[in-house]
Amino acid sequence: MIGKAQIRSLIAIVALVFAASLAALAQAAPKGDLGQTSADQKPAILDQVGIDQRLNQQVPLDLSFVDENGQAVKLGQYFGQKPVVLSLVYYQCPMLCSQVLNGLTSSLNVLRFDIGREFDVVTVSFDPRDTPAAANETKQRMLKRYRRPGSEQGWHFLTGKKEQIDALTQAVGFRYAWDPEIQQYAHASGIMLLTADGHVAQYYYGIEYSPRDLRLGIVQTSQGKVGSLVEQVLLYCYHYDPAKGKYGAVIFNILRVSALAMILVLGGFMFLMFRRDAAARRHGLYQTS
In whole angstroms, what is the distance from residue 227 CA to residue 154 CA? Predict the structure, then answer.
């Protein structure tokens, strides 16, 4: 027979699973919007700046650039095997571009995936005046922050001519403008995740990027070639939201997984209890015989 202690344990397990489901629901609940700067306070040049999503757009892989070593390269040589994180910056940027690269590096340091193994990173300057020397200096600075051996083979820093730059930035919807008053580029901040064959898959906005979202994006974009079973299950529970540039919880999928987990826990618990009771009865019969 199942005793009171076992019943209390069973109730506690059910309550724990139910609480986990409620926590997932609370996490997925919509948050209030932060205050936004009104349009009449925005400088006019910012009307030319932004990121227009071009999901599933094919990036022209025949574009010519120069790498950090001064070698002529084709964009397509960095594609074909694994997903690619694309960052668009300019190497003489006094502030925002460094924040983008630093934020990207901080997120990548958290991932258990390694640059050059599960994915590559391609950083392209949208300033045609940038030089391979500036690209190499930026690369060395980022590699010191990343601190993983072999990553120099998977993180590439490119410069190019205006026509090539324009073709790439237009393909991914990255808009920027030169501000003659301050002699700097006005531009948005964000990174893109591209498939192995060069299609735009996801956008991540701002200067800080969720390691969880990047991990799930790489797993999803790799089409099952990267990631564990747990991460595949997470993809079932979380769906990429293009409007927010992040993964959000899918409520019904989470409830399905929680219900399945509850059934497995209860079934396993009852199986063990009945098995123990049967063993106890057999032991009792053996002693009385």
Answer: 19
Enter the DSSP assignment of 184: E
Please state, in angstroms and as integers, the Cα–Cα distance from residue 285 to each residue in 106, 204, 279, 282, following that order: 65, 67, 10, 5
Contact 87, 99 (CB under 8 A): no
Relative orientation angle of helices 211-221 and 229-237, to the nearest 10 degrees: 100
Percent share of the chain, pLDDT over 70: 63
> 95: which DSSP letter?
S
Bridge partners (DSSP) of residue 177 are 186
Angle between helix 229-237 and 251-288 (nearest 10):
130
pLDDT value for 44: 83
User: Which residues fall within 8 angstroms of residue 154, CB to CB, at 6 or more apart?
Assistant: 114, 115, 116, 117, 119, 120, 121
Q: Please state, as a whole number, how many other Cβ atoms lie within 10 Å of the Cβ of residue 235.
A: 18
Nearest to residue 13, comparing CAs of 265, 211, 198? Answer: 265
- Beta carbons within 10 angstroms of residue 86's beta carbon: 22
Instruction: Tell me which H or E stretch contains 248.
Output: strand 246-249
**Cβ-Cβ contacts under 8 Å for 105 (sequence gap 6 or more):** 142, 145, 146
Angstrom distance (rounded) from CA 177 to CA 184: 9
- The CA-to-CA distance between both ends of the chain, in Å, stands at 21
pLDDT in tens, 208-263: 999 988 998 998 888 754 434 443 444 344 444 666 656 565 444 444 444 444 55
Give pLDDT < 50 ranges for the chain.
2, 10-39, 225-240, 250-261
